[in-house]
Amino acid sequence: MTLRSKFTGAVSGIALSCVAVAAQAETLFWSTQAKPVEEAQAMREQVLSGFADGVDYQPNDGGPWITRLNAELQAGSGSIGVLGALHGDYSAMDPATLVDLSDLGAMSSSDTFNNLAKLGTDQMQYIPWMQASYIMAANKEALQYLPEGADIDALSYDQLIAWAANVQEATGEAKFGFPAGPDGLKHRFFQGYLYPSYTNGVVRTFASDEAVVAWEKFAELWSHTNPASTNFSFMQEQLLSGDAWIVFDHTSRLAGAFNERPDDFVAFPAPAGPSGRGFMPVLAGVAIPSTAPDMDAAKALVSYMLKPETQIATLRATSFFPVVDVELPDDLPPSVQAAGAAVAKMSGAADANPGLLPAGLGDKGGDFNRVFVDTFERIILGGQDIRMVLDDQKGTLAGIMEETGAPCWAPDAPSDGACPVE
Amino acid sequence: MLLNARILPYVLILPVTLFLCLFFIYPFVLVSQQAFGSSEGGWSLDNFREVVDYWKFPISLKNTLLLAAAVVPIQLALALLMATMVSKMEKGRDMVLYIWTIPLGISDLAAGIIWLAIFEQSGFLNSMLNGMGVIDKPVNFLTYQNPWIVFVAIALAEIWRATAIMLVILVAGIGLIPKEYYEAADVFGASKWKQFTRITFPMLRPSLQTALVLRVILAFEIFAVVAALGGTLFPVLMGETYAYQFDLLNSGAAAAMALIILAISIGFTLIILRILRVPKGASI
């Protein structure tokens, strides 16, 4: 009896220490990015395998991601070493829970990104990791219906509407596709594309007369939009199935279509409105929670992610572009080549009018997005009067801005205090 | 060691009680604290006011109730029919029962996705209609223009998925009814329908209670099937709760929604228990 219990004790002791060693050796990379199985696997095999101390890469949905992180932070100890998430995920967090990375030595070559990464403090709360944007893509069969005189690389919203109308007339089906599904990124289209293009603002101009025009134009575009769009979340699926011919989405949500049938699709810049070609850059970053078990390993991993070779490997794995200056190789996947060219044309256009990611909203980012999603659902799906809806939603928006005190971001004109809704 | 016969029952239910306290009562207290808490500390109804005032709340409440009202009676009728059929079978009874309960083993999200594969634009229903020459190009069924089709699709998926849970309870209940009642009914020449309404149905009350309570509570918690088929077109209470917790990171409002759903569930449970109550002393 005693001998056996001694033996069991010894075995469980050894087992426990093995687990402890394994847990110590690998840094847990807790990420909301590169979630699809193929991308996660590519991250592990092609990007992180080069890191000497070993990494346990675990991507997850935003909800579980923040829930576990908060649990560890509240407990005061945790196993997460490094965080990978979007700018918006970090801005919803308390800056005190993230380790100051100012003296790490590695940072993005873009000052705009580095400033965003400070989250309104004077320290680097996260290190910019990779970037992407939203672009347009089309099935090549749709190109023959482009309105006369239209340049696909310099479309206006009116031309886009005419194009979608031509396609509908010719095929008998509405083939513009819009990611209005539950997981679709529709709010970013309104915040970073429609509003900047028509009103040269997002918050100040939310309920302006120009905004009414913008929504009228969008309703016109919607009349040529596949009505099943309210179930679309990743437009690569509808491009491949043929349910949509002309689509708007995040570059990484279009990558599948370009990689599978590179010769069938084209990528092109977002259209322009009266106040320029609005577009929104997307920024992901890496950060270290204050509860990281091995701070040195975590910092080493963050630096590793910013190395030029790692950045190019990340680009191949995730279709997210580097944030540091690197020479891009020629043999990149088709999705990266197509998206890269479209983003370059968009940001390099003479009328480019970048609409930055919402900043300073703290944990109200979701509420801010909901204002735009609700406006869309009421005006476009519910058929309510545009002026009435905008005046109604304006109150909610103003409440969020006053509560968070977030100052205006581009293209809104700067404000002294909280960004006002005019 | 012998335990006092008076203490023994309490000792035996102790593990379950502890389990419930730890994993139900304790989280419930925490959720209530969140729901009735406010950002300034202290107690308030702010969270409830916020969720009830939101423009989608009446719509999602109406949708949830409407769906339960449409789905549960159909499921009840189907489950009764299937249960009586199964219990009359001589051979292959278990086989049929297993096949009928397969949908129960499928997660509700998977069930939603299966039905989405049927109804979507490039789905099975469209290919079938197209193949039969009824339509010449695929039709969009699940769109904001056809809210009724979305509703019917969700109801169908729910009926397909969750009728079996009532079925198994009712089959067990029917098995408990003594044969003597039916023999006596035969002697007096009662028709099969009369036997069903006068013997099977009343004797099934306890099982019906359980089945209905379980099913109605689950109907108010419907979420994944709606998310898969209706997307944002068909807001329901549970979907709004999820949105508060994970999209808006507003745990207080999510907790308030959860308590509202709990209150509705308790209300309906009491109603069902009252309607189908078994008179004291009357049991099988």
Automatic annotation (TrEMBL), chain A:
<dbReference type="GO" id="GO:0042597">
    <property type="term" value="C:periplasmic space"/>
</dbReference>
<dbReference type="InterPro" id="IPR050490">
    <property type="entry name" value="Bact_solute-bd_prot1"/>
</dbReference>
<keyword id="KW-0449">Lipoprotein</keyword>
<comment type="similarity">
    <text>Belongs to the bacterial solute-binding protein 1 family.</text>
</comment>
<dbReference type="Pfam" id="PF01547">
    <property type="entry name" value="SBP_bac_1"/>
</dbReference>
<feature type="signal peptide">
    <location>
        <begin position="1"/>
        <end position="22"/>
    </location>
</feature>
<keyword id="KW-0472">Membrane</keyword>
<keyword id="KW-0732">Signal</keyword>
<protein>
    <submittedName>
        <fullName>Bacterial extracellular solute-binding protein</fullName>
    </submittedName>
</protein>
<keyword id="KW-1003">Cell membrane</keyword>
<dbReference type="InterPro" id="IPR006059">
    <property type="entry name" value="SBP"/>
</dbReference>
<keyword id="KW-0564">Palmitate</keyword>
Automatic annotation (TrEMBL), chain B:
<keyword id="KW-0812">Transmembrane</keyword>
<dbReference type="GO" id="GO:0055085">
    <property type="term" value="P:transmembrane transport"/>
</dbReference>
<feature type="transmembrane region" description="Helical">
    <location>
        <begin position="148"/>
        <end position="172"/>
    </location>
</feature>
<feature type="transmembrane region" description="Helical">
    <location>
        <begin position="254"/>
        <end position="276"/>
    </location>
</feature>
<feature type="transmembrane region" description="Helical">
    <location>
        <begin position="7"/>
        <end position="29"/>
    </location>
</feature>
<dbReference type="Pfam" id="PF00528">
    <property type="entry name" value="BPD_transp_1"/>
</dbReference>
<feature type="transmembrane region" description="Helical">
    <location>
        <begin position="212"/>
        <end position="234"/>
    </location>
</feature>
<dbReference type="InterPro" id="IPR052730">
    <property type="entry name" value="Sugar_ABC_transporter"/>
</dbReference>
<dbReference type="InterPro" id="IPR035906">
    <property type="entry name" value="MetI-like_sf"/>
</dbReference>
<feature type="domain" description="ABC transmembrane type-1">
    <location>
        <begin position="61"/>
        <end position="272"/>
    </location>
</feature>
<keyword id="KW-0813">Transport</keyword>
<feature type="transmembrane region" description="Helical">
    <location>
        <begin position="95"/>
        <end position="118"/>
    </location>
</feature>
<feature type="transmembrane region" description="Helical">
    <location>
        <begin position="64"/>
        <end position="83"/>
    </location>
</feature>
<comment type="similarity">
    <text>Belongs to the binding-protein-dependent transport system permease family.</text>
</comment>
<dbReference type="GO" id="GO:0005886">
    <property type="term" value="C:plasma membrane"/>
</dbReference>
<protein>
    <submittedName>
        <fullName>L-arabinose transport system permease protein AraP</fullName>
    </submittedName>
</protein>
<keyword id="KW-0472">Membrane</keyword>
<keyword id="KW-1133">Transmembrane helix</keyword>
<dbReference type="InterPro" id="IPR000515">
    <property type="entry name" value="MetI-like"/>
</dbReference>
